[in-house]
Amino acid sequence: MIGLLDHPTNGKIFIDGVDTTTLGDDKISSFRNNKLGFIFQFSNLLTDLTVLENVLLPIQIAGGTTNDEKNAGDLLKAVGLENQMHKRANKISGGQAQRVAIARGLINKPSIVLADEPTGNLDSVTSQTIVDLMKSMAKKLNQTFIIVTHDREHFGDVDRVITIKDGKAFEGDQPPEMEIMA
Question: What fold does the segment set 14-152 form as a domain?
Answer without folding.
Answer: Rossmann fold (3.40.50)
